[in-house]
Amino acid sequence: MEVYFDNSATTKVYPEVRDIMLKVMDEDYGNPSSLHLKGVAAEHYIKDSADIIAKVLKCTPEEIIFTSGGTESNNLAIIGTALAKKRRGKHFITSSIEHASVLQVMAFLEKEGCEVTYISPDANGIVRPEDFADAVRDDTVLVSCMHINNEIGSVQPISEIAKAVRKKNPSVVVHSDCIQSFGKIQVVPKKMDADMISVSGHKLHGPKGSGFLYVKKGTLIRPIIYGGGQQRNMRSGTENVPAIAGLGTAVAISMAGMGEKMAFVESLKNKLIKELTALPEVYSNSETAPHIASISFTGVRAEVMLHALEDKGIYVSSGSACSSNKRKESAVLTAIGLDRERLESTLRFSFNETNTEEEVDYTVSVISELLPVLRHYVRGSR
Asked: Which of 89, 120, 349, 382 might form a disulfide with 293, Cβ 3.0–4.6 angstroms?
């Protein structure tokens, strides 16, 4: 049996996504900036996808900028704001448990003379709105906080953060990395009081290399890619029409019956957590997001368990896919106060609606057999 429990790293594209992308590449391959019929046909795919996304977000299509994915969306949001507001201020606020595509941008801004305040979470991986508000200054230009943490699944109170910081400084721009939440829980920028949100297509059965940034009308940002002036001068370069068409299709399918799908996904996650934590010295690190389970198997290094599971056809992650190949401690797990033994033994299981109870049962049975063997091997070698 093959079990794929690494859906927060990437998802398999829907068959409909594959089909629409092939159609665009084979038949409607024109440049969307061309004035002839091939160009017009290509442009329609972009418009249709923008309409689909705008309907979900309850915004206008003009507020959607298509990008190459979550990393570019986060870069555009933060650097674009820094460029647009450099005369207004150079102070930024974010959490200490953001994705690298936010934290590395903040580090870049610090090197450029900006100041960044990092807000730490509580033991459950959740940040407090009042901590963000306390950090706000007159020269604060942007607050960035992810909606769902990619490693432990903690859900952040974005609307409360936005209200708290704007009460102190109404001009602060609020950005949220919604890469792990879009398609899993409700994401409506107006309800969240967010000026910008970032989304990646390959986290919701769309193609890799696709994504978008929502920018509320009237929000001032500068482009970071210059050229032919595509997308209202905000993101130059010929649009990746196959990926954009695939993204729009993935969004439409993901949103159809999302509540029922995620209720089922959450039941799988809860079942896995309940049965695994019944085993000796196995601990859950978070239970908030519907699709992510962070579990520590003390006495066994994460990489050892990961590869042992891989040998049995079970695919999981030892953390963020963008950093899990680097041998360093997780900043997220460190921030929530895990001791070294749990830090070194944590795996992430992430689900989608195609997973089954049978896969959960199989995974639990495999881990139940592996744990005592691996622990005996590790502890016996000391």
From this structure: 349
Positive or negative, the Cα torsion across 154, 175, 58, 11? negative
Per annotation, catalytic residue among 59, 114, 178, 322: 322
With a CB cutoff of 8 Å and minimum separation 6, the contacts of 31 are 38, 39, 42, 238
Model-level pTM? 0.95
3-state secondary structure 329-365: CCHHHHHCCCCHHHHCCEEEEECCCCCCHHHHHHHHH
Report how far residue 231's alpha carbon sits from residue 314's, in angstroms, rounded to the nearest whole number.
Answer: 42
The yes-or-no answer on residue 322 being catalytic is: yes
Inform me whether the pLDDT recorded for 376 exceeds 60.
yes
Q: Please say if the pLDDT value at position 65 is more than 70.
A: yes
Average pLDDT over residues 347-358: 98
Q: What does the pLDDT look like over 101-122, one tens digit per residue? A: 999 999 999 999 999 999 999 9
In Å, what is the CA distance from 253 to each residue of 114, 348, 353, 365? 41, 25, 12, 33
Summarize the confidence of residues 88-93 as an average pLDDT: 97
- 301: nearest Cα among 378, 380, 382, 381: 378
In angstroms, rounded to a whole number, what is the distance separating the alpha carbons of residues 321 and 8?
8
| Dist CA 276 CA 364 (whole Å) | 6
- The SS3 assignment for 23 reads helix
**Do the beta carbons of residue 303 and residue 293 sit within 8 Å?**
no
Identify any residues that bridge with 115 across adjacent strands, giving them in sequence order.
91
Angle of helix 100-111 relative to helix 70-84, nearest 10 degrees, comes to 30
The tens digit of pLDDT for each residue in 328-337 reads 778 899 999 9
Q: How confident is the model at residue 322 (pLDDT cuts 50, 70, 90)?
A: low
